[in-house]
Amino acid sequence: MKYYAGIDLHSSNNYIGIIDEKDKRVFGKRISNDLPDVLSVLEPFKSNLDGVVVESTYNWYWLVDGLQNHGYQVHLANPSAVKQYEGLKYTDDRWDSFWLAHMKRLNILPEGY
Hints:
alpha/beta, Nucleotidyltransferase, domain 5, five-stranded mixed beta sheet, 3 helices, 30% strand, globular
């Protein structure tokens, strides 16, 4: 079973959403911006995790560097190319994190570098 993770990152916290290869939500939780906390959430999925998507916001570097240093395949989402928000009246961090994982699963993730 493959898993895909999306992380909606903010200045002091993040929301991690993880889906399986059938798009089933298997994990979702808001946690603090502390690398050991993020790693402990991802660890049970690590061997089957196809990728971790982080939105390329102003404070992404510490998280991406930390995840890569621990062997995770990280993808930076290009927020200006993500079309999710067009026409939606309401989104939240949970929705955003799962949407990032969903785009990775479908191989339609617009990446930034």
